[in-house]
Amino acid sequence: MSVLTVASQPYAGQRPGTSGLRKKVTVFQQAHYLENFVQAIFDVVPELNGATLVLGGDGRFYNRVAVQTILKMAAANGVAKVLVGQAGLLSTPAVSCIIRKYAAVGGIVLSASHNPGGPDGDFGIKYNVNNGGPAPEKITEAIYTRTTTINQYKTYTAADLDIDVVGEYTLGNMQVVVLDSVADYAELMADLFDFDAIRAWFAAGHQMRFDAMSAASGPYAKRILEDLLGAPQGTVVNGIPLPDFGGLHPDPNPVYADDLVAHLFGERGSVVSDFGAASDGDADRNMILGRHFIVTPSDSLAVMAANAEKIKGYTRGIAGVARSMPTSCAVDAVAKKRGIACFETPTGWKFFGNLLDAGQVTLCGEESYGTGSDHVREKDGVWAVLFWLNLLAVTGQSVQTIVQQHWQEYGRHFYSRHDYEALDTLAANDLMAHLRRQLPTLAGQTLGEFTVQLADDFAYDDPIDGSRSEQQGIRVVMTDGSRVVFRLSGTGTDGATLRVYLEKFVSDPAGHTVPTQTALAGLIAIAEQLAQIKARTGREAATVVT
Ligand code: VG1
Ligand code: CO
């Protein structure tokens, strides 16, 4: 057994997107493709030499192969110790938790999150830094730059390690600790939430349905909800992670988690659950449902911010909140009333890290079914579900009552996202360029019932490290606060995906019961008028509406 230096050649296109490098599995299966990217990480982060690295993924196809490859490369690159999840499985928030708990220098997350898996699906890899969060752009860009010239990588000639049994192993001079994937994370959740109150809620006969979508959240949800909190066996459905997620799309929204929605809306017989939830491929997203009721992610964040003190881990209050730019302003209304800061960041969790580290914000969220807090540096699906459970348990109210009362107090921000997937990349880029050209003249114009107050290409100056991120989405803000936002996805692997985000504020409770798409009809028409979506993409309708 010895260190081996393997000659390689750069691959084009290894620039990480919104959340790491995501490509088709077949792209990753090319000779040295994964190795090049991993070596670029070791080259850019020399501190890993002699240090501890955390490693795990969402269990999708290629996860096991990649874990073995990375273990051997870590040994060859002088890493002292790797903490790897049993069977190679760690949810994204669990990686973040473990990096922080064991003071690791970094972590490698193997996931393409909500993208489908299997041999024809997607794979992904992401580097997290020592605060437990995704590497900031400075580092992801350096990794990318390194991949453009890389011509060799180091590995270790050794047999594959048995990662299915918890225990301590060695690979050359490197120690490998195979961890129970759930234990550390479950311990953190028990610190943050009132498990006794939630146990009592279940013991009183309340029922929930958690759809793990055959992805990484299954073992976490089963252990915490069923084993620790006394929810009946079977509360967690699709709880075993499968390499292809059972052929389904592990994206917790009403379109892809339609079976869960049907259960909560009585379309599978009578509704037995008071609470429904789902999570995505790597367990960092969450969808929250009540009986006959869907909570939008933006509202979920606002409700959390308004009720934080009722939850065990947040009784001291919250320092501030942050949301990604396309996320609705529902949380802004809460922050304003509470007199706390509210930050608006570009899309992607990496932009919350500095604010969380500096203690400026406690809760943050994105419209894309992501919510989290300063307990880790990733969004956290199971955490969000436990937050809601804790809230239901201590208030004794239903999900619907909590949200409707919230709207009465703060007004309702109607919200929807229209995705146009797998577009021709040139057409999508042209559409964005067409929008950019209109920006200088939009302010002051009347569009339908709205007048444009501000139109720009969102740029973010990080208040902590001063870094600037430009071209983060076109926003058209109306004088009444309504907004239309356009962005191209940074996580897709098939052509381009256009996301159109629509938001309208209605303060009068009499207007709160209108169907969302009806409430947003005027803005949907404006989006089409500004972007010429039909003509430019050839699409009559969005692929996915959430
Ligand atoms: C999407 C979401 C974004 C989220 C990102 C990663 O990015 O819009 O809010 O942070 O996915 O989520 P994009 O660039 O495709 O819009 V996950 O669950 O993939 O880690
Ligand atoms: Co995810």
UniProtKB/TrEMBL annotation:
Superkingdom: Bacteria
Gene Ontology MF term list: magnesium ion binding; phosphoglucomutase activity
EC number, UniProt record: 5.4.2.2
Magnesium among keywords: yes
UniProt key word Ubl conjugation: no
Pfam name, any one: PGM1_C_vert_fung
SUPFAM superfamilies: Phosphoglucomutase, C-terminal domain, Phosphoglucomutase, first 3 domains
Assigned keywords, A-Z: Isomerase, Magnesium, Metal-binding, Phosphoprotein
Ranges of residues in domain Alpha-D-phosphohexomutase alpha/beta/alpha: 14-153, 185-289, 298-410
GO cellular component term of the entry, any: cytosol
UniProt record similarity statement: Belongs to the phosphohexose mutase family.
Protein's recorded name: phosphoglucomutase (alpha-D-glucose-1,6-bisphosphate-dependent)
Organism field: Deefgea piscis
Lineage of source species: Bacteria, Pseudomonadati, Pseudomonadota, Betaproteobacteria, Neisseriales
